């Protein structure tokens, strides 16, 4: 039986596969399944040629396996293959006629989750007629929405299935362009009931469709131009649509409700029920439209508006001055002063803007809102709270390693390496059984196509460690060999691709990223050598405090261990430890260094820990001293280091400070305004004592692990920021997921690090205030809030960065003003003062008015009112110039009066 299948496949006799399968019993077909799977893998292997690639099997061979799979497998084994067999409709028809699988109906019904199928609505109707499929409404609606033709072939199509389309349209695609004119035509011909379709369009607002599909139904409703009589009849559905999560749906409902506000049948009380949520929306158009409808109700109705007045108070959730001003005017004009309205407004009193407050004097207490000053906490990079939670035993390490595999970055990675050095030799007959799931996870992770470079190193290290344990504990770890063999087979199928890099084998031979990763690979190799030799001398660079710090005390203790054991530490490990060392209060540790260390260790740390000390002693390891100098005092040139041979490294890399400017690229319409940062090219030099830094600055490729390098240079972040800015922030309209991910990860790392900013830090933060991604901007605001609280932020420098960008309209001003209104305004007295300084120095960079400048000036006016301040005297000349612009005249005059 198997031999016959091999024969049909090898001789490519596609016409013989169906007769062969027909003669087999159900049990015989089941026994063929493993063989079919094996043959499928073989013919699916990729064969590379000089200019292209193809699978090992021919078209006939693939057809043979497709038919055999369909006939012999159950649904679980066949999987979700909605394409291969169904390409040949005639062949599928023949197979179904003599042997439709019992799972076929469920299989076809499940196809609504597929991205693509090779069958369509007409095929499903045919299969249903023959009894092969009992189609669910979801299936019919989904497939009909993809096919706006042949609607008259079956009477059920327009009578029944079209309404399924309204309830269960395609999830993956918006409707094709033919549908709207077709629907209009069918309604005009009375083939589709107009009233029912209008209702279905409105119901789509709350059916959790994607934005495109919901938008299609809203467009369909608008195109049909419902009359006022129809709108009154559909009023309940219009009201229900106000609760939609899609802003287009809500705006559509509001636009049509506005048309019938004057009608006696308009349900004011029902509308007032929805009004608080509408006015709390983050979408300004929704809030503005809701206020227009509300005002129209007040204009036409004298009764039944009490609840509406109470609901209107929710408008003051918004910090947009135009929204608050509009709501205040409606209240003043239409709502009499009463205890109820005062009570309703009292819940939002703290949020009412200073410039709106006087107009509501009768309704709320007009006293200036008093905010508390921030209770300043001293910023501490290392503390008891941030102490790293290291594994304390071999058992702990076994539970920790899976976490380290799952977590990105270097924090868990470093602790895992430190734990392996410390406890790898502690396995015994009982505890070693805990290792199998760790080994399995490492194999499963490393076998994936895309694996983070730190994960490649860690998983490879765990696997090689596991293979060495297998020799010691062959009985307890007998399954490891099977797991490893399967992983090798998986990797072998990928090695045919030229882009695939081998991840299994000796750790020194694998690829784990480009130049930037070489120091980490070097340290990982040293760790494996320590494991093999039983050397438990700790790494110097293992973090002691979250997220990346090595405490000065730990650095002294670790150097002392190497000193006492007369062992030489690894050069790159020493440099990484120095780079990560927290330089807070290091002068307090000088006495300890004097007592515990001697020789070069002592001289090095006396220089490193004392910000005023000059380097003294024997410079046996130039790379250590150079790293200590760059980390401690990045802008200083030490004459003592002049003979070290690092003069060929551009000064930008040593100082972490780069020249940058925002430029108007008049000739380039695709990138009209660019952030231009000058990062020199650098090629790695062959030298006896290379710097850890050199590997990073020599990396020229886009590098997904770049944010992780913040944990390797936490004291000197300029080079990391420069790389991210050059690669990902040169243009504010960049929308690629990859670049957005890098920027977000960098912003989150900076927030986690809680370190005062350097020049490049201010450039990065001032730039991401304007990023197109809302989460990135929100993270920027969180960094600003925390740094202001700790009083470690220079808002003059930060304002200058953002102002220089917006002077040329690098990004829409609205991104920044929305951020200020929603996250940065009125947090505390100190934050308002900081915000005033930030806005002042943004505005000082401006020359001619930019789009939405009025919005910044409105917020500036509000902040000045809150701080009881006046506009900066250096800004008044600009304000006098800007007031010539008609849209800015009013706000400029208000600011000049301050």
Walkthrough of the structure:
The protein is mainly α and 898 residues long. The protein is 55% helix and 2% strand. The strands form 2 sheets. A two-stranded antiparallel sheet has the order 1-2. Strands 3-4 form a two-stranded antiparallel ribbon. The chain starts with a helix and ends with a helix. The relative contact order is 0.04.
Could you tell me the number of beta strands?
4
Unreliable stretches: none
If strands are numbered along the chain, what order do they take across the biggest sheet? Answer: 1-2
| Major sheet | 2 strands, antiparallel
Q: Please work out how many helical segments DSSP would assign.
A: 45
In one word, what is the shape? Answer: flat
- Provide the helix percentage: 55-70%
Beta-strand content = under 5%
Radius of gyration: 35 Å
- Structural class, by secondary structure, is mainly alpha
Tell me, rounded to a whole number, the average pLDDT. Answer: 91
For the termini, the CA-CA separation is 95 Å
Domain DUF7825: 653-897
Domain DUF7824: 385-650
Domain DUF6493: 2-285
Organism: Chryseobacterium herbae
Give a quick precis of the structure.
Keywords: Coiled coil. By secondary structure, this protein is mainly α.
